[in-house]
Amino acid sequence: MISIQVKNLNKLFGKTQAVDNVSFDVYKGRIFGLLGPNGAGKTTTIRMINHIIPLDSGEITINGLTVGPKTQKMIGYMPEERGLYKKMKVGEQLMYLAQLKGLKKPDAKKKIVYWLKRFDAYDWHSKVVGELSKGMSQKIQFIATIVHDPDIYIFDEPFSGLDPINSELLKEIIIELRQNGKTILFSTHRMEQVEQMCDDICLFNNGKVVITGNLRNIKKEFGKNTVLIEFEGDPGFLDELEDVRINNRSTNFAEIRILNGLSHQQILKKAMEKSEIHKFQLVEPSLNEIFISTVGEDNIKNKEALLA
Known about the structure:
By secondary structure, this protein is an alpha/beta fold. It is built from eleven helices and 14 strands. The protein has helices at 42-49, 69-72, 90-100, 105-118, 134-146, 164-179, 191-197, 215-222, 237-240, 264-274, 287-307, and strands at residues 2-13, 16-27, 31-35, 57-62, 65-66, 75-78, 152-156, 183-187, 200-205, 208-214, 226-233, 244-250, 253-258, 275-283. It has a six-stranded mixed beta sheet, with helices on both faces. It has a four-stranded antiparallel beta sheet with strand order 2-1-4-5, covered by helices on one side. It has a four-stranded antiparallel beta sheet with strand order 12-13-11-14, covered by helices on one side. A hairpin with a 2-residue loop joins β4 (57-62) and β5. The longest helix is centred in the last third of the chain and has 21 residues, at 287-307. The N and C termini lie far apart (46 Å).
């Protein structure tokens, strides 16, 4: 069942085509990652899905209904620009927002206490929001988004400002929501989070969809064209390689994308001439590599077209 359907979506700001004929489906009970560089059109698309800004053309439906005030109530939305009232206390803020979403006060109180304890934040109940750090504010914003238990959650850059421990906690809760049948769409720059969490993705660039679909299938389509190598010795062999792109290079490790049909055996031979090899593995590309190769090459083509 499709929870969010986006068809031929367009949005123009002045002469800038922010969203250009975008289509994708988000299925119920799955985690969908919206990816792309800054200015790619992700946040504009999210705002149209949430009926915050109007679309110019195309169609968006939520559980079969055209987006509007009714569909807003089906969604828990955490924007990239956090919207907490800085002079209110945390508990008052969460109660106010929960009641706005239709929760009765006794139910809202129980859920607020549960989530504050879950985030190890119960002691913040009487703190003024303006006194909170960025990471603390992020937790409160997240609680405000999920406290009314909607069917669909949309998070714009949910991991921004969180340390690794709290990022893991947030990831754990998002996966838990999915296990409870909720639908989650989130936008992020953090590829490792997407790779660990998402069922499906949509990669944006310059307002257009570059890739969309099941993450596992997308990785299979790219093939096993990436070499992971751990070594000890002279890394100079990496500089001698042709028809490759080297990612994540460090003192004793490299991720190498094979281009133009180069044999991985040739890479191994070169490496063994100068180094002791501890690990040599041919794998599917990481999502980070897919992102760089797809968006990076697209941007290069655009620059070449401008210079022509």
